[in-house]
Amino acid sequence: QVQLVESGGDSVQAGESLKLSCSASGPLFSIETMGWYRQVPGKERELVASRSNMGRVYYAEFVKGRFTISRANAKNMLYLQMSNLEPEDTAMYYCFRGDPPHSWGQGTQVTVSS
After folding, report:
1. The pLDDT value given to residue 44
2. Nearest to 21 by CA among 72, 90, 74
3. Are residues 80 and 93 in contact, defined by beta-carbon separation less than 8 angstroms?
4. Cβ(54)–Cβ(70) below 8 Å
5. Which pLDDT band holds residue 30 (cuts at 50, 70, 90)?
């Protein structure tokens, strides 16, 4: 059974940094694409970043240069280092697994104040 548990969300000021973590259980973690979506109430979920098992990385235009996705396969962990946060980054951040995604975590809230 696949489980994803996010952590690291917090309330911060604009310009500050946060690091989100996603702990994954279940088999075959190392061969699957992992990534992060985010969602604001009333809006569609949007892809933030993803990283394939082969190291191919995708970043949404709105986070390029500010966010870095990484994974530690030996620990079944996925990370999202977020720097220079903006109020527009306020959202619930969800970890996902698979391409297309087949498993999701419960989310971790990031709130950025101006």
Report:
1. 95
2. 72
3. yes
4. no
5. confident
